[in-house]
Amino acid sequence: MGFPDFKPVSDNGLLVAFGDSMTPQVHDAVLRLDRVLAQHPPHGLVEVVPAFVNLMVVFDPLVTDHAAMQAAVQALLGTEVAGSTEGTLREVQVCFDADLAPDLATVADQTGLSEEAVIDAHLAGELHVVMYGFAPGYAYMTGVPEALHLPRKQAPVRDVPKGSVLIAGAQCLVSTVTMPTGWWIIGRSPTEILRDDPARPFLFDVGDPVRFTRIDRDSYEKAVRANG
Known about the structure:
Organism: Yoonia sediminilitoris
CATH class of the largest domain: Mainly Beta
Strand content: 25-35%
Number of strands: 13
Number of domains: 2
Helix content: 10-25%
CATH architecture of the largest domain: Beta Barrel
CATH topology of the largest domain: Cyclophilin
Oligomer: single chain
Largest sheet: 7 strands, mixed
GO molecular function: ATP binding; hydrolase activity
Domain Carboxyltransferase: 4-204
Distance between the termini: 51 Å
Structural class: alpha+beta
Pfam family, one: CT_C_D
Protein name: Inhibitor of KinA
CATH superfamily of the largest domain: Cyclophilin-like
């Protein structure tokens, strides 16, 4: 298969893939096309949804079709992106107290690290948002240090609180609603990911770098109260 690969999806979507496994180069190509389509939207474009190795181009089938949209996207592939593609650094606070980090001790045991070493490794990770999925505001980040890579749990845990900082493999995310997860819960954040702003409903954009900063319990509780 040659890349980029174009695949019609339903009656109003075109999936554009730049590889079959995620590498920095492949994801950079996804981000660049996402930015180009935002700056030069083809006729009939409704939405672009970037993911790990591909992006979905959603269009209005009443004004265009798969062939026309593919031709428009192909014509834009070599277009230079105006401005930076590096994203905006976002800061997420996290408290690692034991009752807010029920899996921290297990992660330490399974990785052969102390709990403080797990925390230090996570805080040192070069994390980037690569896609949204699964639930509103669930921003999947890559860049968890290899020393912390663990497979998902064999069975998910129910009723995991909003704000839980989760890791699995090379990925990390902050839960935005209470729901089950099979990822490892190593802390909790008071940082609001969902925003009351229709023009910008989430804190992150795909491509943003993310820095986690440690806070104590008192600061966590104050931030939770301030967020209502």
